[in-house]
Specification:
Layout (H helix, E strand, L loop, with lengths): L1 E5 L1 H12 L5 E6 L6 H6 L6 H11 L2 H10 L3 E6 L4 E5 L8 E4 L5 H8 L3 E8 L2 E8 L2 E9 L10 H30 L6 E6 L4 H7 L1 H5 L16 H11 L2 E5 L1
Parallel strand pairs: 6-9
Antiparallel strand pairs: 1-10, 2-3, 2-5, 3-4, 4-10, 6-7, 7-8
Length: 250
């Protein structure tokens, strides 16, 4: 098994190559809420027995199962009895379960990839944040800012405790400020999805503080963005990471 992250362009190239390859396929689309039941149900249909066991085993490989849970977008599966075998986790959810026997069917995946999305992004580290709204491939709204948080005091004793308390208060004030900025940047948009990135340890306290994110929690992707910084450069880069697909080859 191999795992690879593909841009939209490279994924299209892969799909074009598979479409031109000879042999019978089964094309299987599974929406997020159907895992793992749809896979298990394959073996109940005699015409799919050739593929069912292999697909079921592949989906239950630990690395695949963990990725399916992390992406939470369902999967597109293209399987030949002898030949190409792929599981594609798209950046956005598959919307319906579909089985196409004896056919390489890319239409549900292309529909997911080509739909126009409005995406909110929040990148945050302690002391810096960058918030943006993407429509199609364009950053249409953004705000980058800072908040002072005192560095950890290492002298020990009462002084250390006093600085620790001050730092905690500064973190709380920073989260309140960030929560207000998120509301201001997102309030005039109907977002399809929200992606968070930066320091992953801030995700939980931010969600507890930010009323906007609490209201829109169903739109927040479980897939945190693997971006270390929270600045304009990272924000510009974030869309490229968001629209990538994860592809397993067997």
């Amino acid at each position: 098994m191999e795992k690879e992250i593909l841009s939209k362009t490279r994924l299209y190239e892969l799909l074009s190559r598979l479409e031109s390859s000879p042999g019978d396929y089964i094309s299987l689309y599974i929406k997020p809420s159907s895992f793992p039941y749809c896979i298990n149900g394959l073996s109940l249909r005699p015409q799919y027995n050739t593929y069912a066991h292999e697909i079921k085993e592949s989906v239950n490989i630990k690395a695949v199962a963990q990725a399916v849970e992390r992406y939470n977008t369902g999967a597109a599966i293209y399987w030949q009895k002898n030949g190409n075998k792929y599981i594609v986790l798209p950046p956005f959810p598959i919307t319906e379960d579909k089985i196409s026997p004896d056919e390489f069917d890319v239409s549900p995946l292309l529909e997911t990839l080509e739909r126009v999305y409005v995406i909110g992004v929040v990148l945050v580290t302690w002391g810096t944040y960058s918030i943006g709204v993407f429509h199609r491939d364009n950053l249409v709204k953004s705000k980058t800012g800072t908040g002072y948080i005192h560095k950890k005091h290492r002298k020990g004793g009462r002084s250390e405790k006093r600085f620790a308390r001050r730092t905690e208060e500064q973190k709380k004030a920073f989260l309140r400020k960030l929560s207000n900025r998120i509301e201001e940047e997102f309030e005039n948009y109907t977002l399809d999805y929200i992606f968070l990135g930066g320091n992953r340890l801030i995700r939980a306290p931010l969600l507890r503080e930010c009323k906007y994110l609490q209201r829109e929690v169903q739109k927040i992707s479980q897939r945190g963005l693997n971006l270390r910084y929270a600045d304009r450069e990272a924000l510009n880069h974030s869309l490229r990471e968001i629209i990538n697909s994860l592809v397993f080859t067997f």
